[in-house]
Amino acid sequence: MAGTIAARLKELGIDLPNLPAPAGAYVPYTLSGNILFVSGQIPMRDGALSHKGKVGADLSIEDGHACARVCALNILAQVAAACGGDLDRVSRCLKLGGFVNCGPDFNDHPKVINGASELMIEVFGDAGKHARFAVGAPSLPLGSAVEVEAVFELK
Fold first, then answer.
1. Does residue 22 sit within a domain?
2. What is the pLDDT of residues 101-129, one digit of tens each?
3. For the stretch 21-60, what's the b/e string if a residue is b when 16 or more beta carbons lie within 10 angstroms of its beta carbon?
4. Number of folded domains in the chain?
5. Which Pfam families would you find in this protein's record (predicted)?
6. Is 45 part of any domain?
7. In CATH, what number is assigned to the domain containing residue 62?
8. Which residue has the higher pLDDT, 52 or 20?
């Protein structure tokens, strides 16, 4: 991975994680023309969940924010794989979708998913600004606290 984005990752002290295996019968990403769809990523690090439980009950908003960032790192690893390691092929992050494992009274979903959104802007600058949704869910795969999906435009 050589180029502007690789240099930015190094400057930010970010090493992309090993690619997590899909947790079901799906592929981690699909490419249609120059649009890359990345499947929902949970906070897997070295084969284990980094954050498990409900945000607002078991985990703080800050924990959820950190969890969303881990999800976003996994998204970046999937994008790098789709681009043959060259993240400079990313023209723009078009959209992020975030699911927060939480109770029915939790309403700080945007603060949690900001962990993923902020990382995209740190890495891609203005090209990392995106449309987004942030919603609550009563449970997520493997008990994950957060799941984030993304759509990118490639050059």
1. no
2. 999 999 999 999 999 999 999 999 999 99
3. eeeeeeebbeeeeeebbbbbbbbbeeeebbbbbbbbeebe
4. 1
5. YjgF_endoribonc
6. yes
7. 3.30.1330.40
8. 52
Alpha-carbon distance of 84 to 122, in angstroms, equals: 21
Distance CA 31, CA 29 (A): 7
Q: What are the strands of the beta sheet with 131-137, ordered from one edge?
A: 29-32, 35-41, 146-154, 90-101, 131-137
Burial pattern 82-116, b for ≥16 Cβ within 10 A else e, equals: bbeebbebbebbbebbbbbbbeeebebbebbbbbb
Instruction: Determine what percent of the chain falls in helix, strand and coil, rounding each to the nearest 5.
Output: 35, 30, 35
The three-state secondary structure class of 94 is strand
Give residue 34's domain range.
4-16+29-154
The token pair at 104 is 């029915």
pLDDT of residue 68: 98
Q: Is the confidence at residue 1, as pLDDT, over 50?
A: no
Asked if residue 41 is part of any domain, the answer here is yes
The confidence score (pLDDT) of residue 15 equals: 94
Spatial neighbors of 93 by CB under 8 A, at least 6 apart, are: 120, 124, 127, 128, 129, 130, 150, 151, 152
Nearest by Cα to 69 from 35, 24, 113, 8: 113
